Each structure stands twice: as structure tokens, then as C-alpha cells.
Amino acid sequence: MAESSKPILYSYFRSSCSWRVRIALALKNIDYETVAINLTKDGGQQFSEEFQALNPMKQVPALKIDGITIGQSLAIIEYLEETRPTPRLLPRDPKKRAQVRMVSDLIASGIQPLQNLSVLKQVGQENQLTWAQQAITSGFNALEQILQSTAGRYCVGDEVSMADLCLAPQVANADRFKVDLTPYPTISRINKSLLALEAFHVSHPCRQPDTPPELRA
Amino acid sequence: MAESSKPILYSYFRSSCSWRVRIALALKNIDYETVAINLTKDGGQQFSEEFQALNPMKQVPALKIDGITIGQSLAIIEYLEETRPTPRLLPRDPKKRAQVRMVSDLIASGIQPLQNLSVLKQVGQENQLTWAQQAITSGFNALEQILQSTAGRYCVGDEVSMADLCLAPQVANADRFKVDLTPYPTISRINKSLLALEAFHVSHPCRQPDTPPELRA
């Protein structure tokens, strides 16, 4: 029997890395199925044998597409960009592309990993909030300064790029961890513009198949 | 006065992220100058006003090239790949490129950030070794499993790629933190092949302009 040709996204509604990919899929108008991996239920469904065989990192997102399974959100987005180039999420100019990747990596390597679920578990309940706030403010201090020179309407110039796919989910995490965004006017302004876009709206954590009823909007 | 056209790499001999970029520069035969940023001296030279203006993340590496300054090692490597494509560090086939980026991101987002200097400072001296070992073994467990299906002589097939530029420096960190590599035969084998290559040799932490005499080899 032939496999379904529709991509399958292994996703958790609240995972900021899953949201990055959901935005890319929405922007590029790629039809897909969601398989929800609940990171807290049953001790964490990402630890099931079945899911580990799919993504040994035991993390979401993972995308089954074109006969392969890709883990790591930015690797997935770069693959989508190379195989479904319209609309583009990386500018044409190599220097602008470098700026987009710098901002993306700053968030994906410099902020998010330090405040993700598994690290916060290790840090212990009483220290979690301070730890997460410290990781985010330290990254946002740098990001605000960088965006002041790269941003137009969005993170790099006036077109939505991979950097924006990282920004909005990270700001949502900042909200969850009660980070004061007053010192970050550029970040806040761009985030507001992004949330007004259809692709960011439909992919939002409060509108996913696995969003619990009490968190739906 | 015209600026020097030679790229300037802001680097620290022991930084695994700096080493990734040094390997790329060596492989692509790009002549560059090193400005050493000592991450421990003077309370950390990355915190100087001068360096912060250059890279607000206060991290190495940063590369001044073609009139711009790029932070984040993978963004730098992707820029070098796009502007100096020979020899290639990403395969032609998009699926193989996805594998290379997945492995690179697994290390760059999933392992290294959790065991870098600033996080270990936060964790406190008595917990540092256990914390770093846990981050590395957890990532290597996944990586070993992934490489068993992607690797040839190197991480993805038989050509050196960006993934290998991440692997060797991460294994060096594992050594520093006394991680037992016995459970990782594929990682160990690839690392051995990589260290035998000229570009990995000349860029090694023990052979940099800022390597202290007692650590030189």
C-alpha cells in the first residue's frame, strides 16, 4: 500500500519550535496532518519507543515528508524552503540571508534551548521562573540591539523570513515566563505585526488540534 | 582609508563554536586574521564594550567579512557556503542537506548551548561536571542512533559536511568533560577520521594564536 503523500507533523501545541514549523507550513500553503505528542502527559509521550524511533532526540517537532523524517525545526524549515520555495523565507541577497540565519540561530541556539522543558526540569521547580527569565532577557537584550539595525517591518527588512518564524514563538514563551517586554520596543513591534498575519494566527498554540479546551481562543 | 579585505575572525582557542568556523575557513582555503577574545581573562573579554558593539550576544565566534559582521557559527558557515562554495559543505541533494542540517542543529541547539561557559557558571561549580555530562550523553545517545543511518565515512555520506564541523568540536568538549565515549562507536570512528584531516588539524584548539603555551601541541 502506498504511503499517504501528505506530510505528517509531530507537534505539541505549546512547543515554540513546533510553532515555527507550523508557520512555515501555513505560509507555504502546505497541507499536512498533525500527530500530537503531549510533552507532559503519560510522563511525556516523546519518550515512547515509537516516537524515539522516529526522532531519537525525543523532541518535537519532527516532520515526515517526501519519504524522510526530519528533526530540528530550522533544518525542517530550510528543507521546505529548498523544496517549496514560494513564498521565500530567506531573502535573495546572501548578506540578508546571513542576517536572517543569525537572528534565527540566536533564538534557536542562544535562547530557546536554555528555557525548554527538559532543562527547566533539571533546574528544579523553585528556580525555573528565574532561570527562564534570565535566559530570555539575556538573549532579548542582544536581539533588540541587532534588530535595530536589521529590521524593517519584520526582523530583516520588510518581508517575513525564517527569523520571524523564530521570533513570535519566542515572544510567546517570554509572555508565559512573565518577562517584562518594555525594554524591547523593536521586538514587541515586530511581534505585533506578525501576530496579525493569517499564517501566524492559524498556527498559534491556542488553535491547534491538541490545544486543551480551556486554552483555546 | 579602505578597510582590509581579509576577513577577521573573533575567536577563542577553546570555544567549540569558534572551532567549527575555523574548520570551514581552512577547508575553503580562506585567508583570515584572528582576533583572540579570551572568555575567562579580565572577567571575560566578550563583555567589553568594544566587543559587545560587534556582537551583542557577547559570544564568539563572530566574523567580519565582505563589510558585514556575522555572529552564530552556523549562520557564518552557511554564508561562507553561499559566497565561497568550493569545496561544498552541504551536499547537492536536498534530503541529504536536511540530514546535514539536522545533525548540525542537534549539536548546535541541542547539546552545545547546555554545556557552554555561561550556563555552567549559572549551574555552580559543584554541579558543572554532572550537568555537562548529562547534556552531552543525552545528545550523543540520539546522535549515535541518527548517524548509524546517515553516516558513511563522515556524518552524512562520504563527504565532509557542516555536520562534521560541529561533530569534532563537540567530541573535544565531551573529552574535556570526561564523557565515556565507549557507547558511541559511530561518533568515535567519524571523529577519528576527521581529526586526521589537515583542516581539522590546523584549526584545532591546541594550535591557535591564543593557545596558552602549556596547552599547545
Largest interface, counted with CB-CB under 8 A? A-B, 44 and 44 residues
* CATH topological fold name of the largest domain in chain A: Glutathione S-transferase Yfyf (Class Pi), Chain A, domain 2
What is the mean predicted local confidence, pLDDT of chain A? 95
Helix content of chain A: 40-55%
CATH-level-2 architecture of the largest domain in chain A = Up-down Bundle
Number of helices of chain A: 9
- Structural class computed from helices and strand pairing of chain A: alpha+beta
Describe the protein.
Two copies of one chain form a homodimer. Chain A is an alpha+beta fold and 217 residues long. Chain A folds into two domains: 8-87 and 201-215, Glutaredoxin (3-Layer(aba) Sandwich), CATH 3.40.30.10; 94-198, Glutathione S-transferase Yfyf (Class Pi), Chain A, domain 2 (Up-down Bundle), CATH 1.20.1050.10. The first copy, chain A, has helices at residues 16-27, 49-54, 73-83, 94-110, 117-123, 128-150, 162-176, 185-195, 198-202; strands spanning 8-11, 33-36, 62-65, 68-71. In chain A, helix 1 (16-27) links the parallel strand 1 (8-11) and strand 2. In chain A, helix 1 runs parallel beside helix 3 (73-83). The mean pLDDT of chain A is 95. The interface between A and B is large, with 44 and 44 residues. Chains A, B: Its EC number is 2.5.1.18, 5.2.1.2. Chains A, B: Pathway: Amino-acid degradation; L-phenylalanine degradation; acetoacetate and fumarate from L-phenylalanine: step 5/6.
Q: Gist?
A:
Chain A folds into 2 domains: 8-87 and 201-215, Glutaredoxin (3-Layer(aba) Sandwich), CATH 3.40.30.10; 94-198, Glutathione S-transferase Yfyf (Class Pi), Chain A, domain 2. Chain A contains 9 helices and 4 strands; from the N terminus they run E-H-E-H-E-E-H-H-H-H-H-H-H.
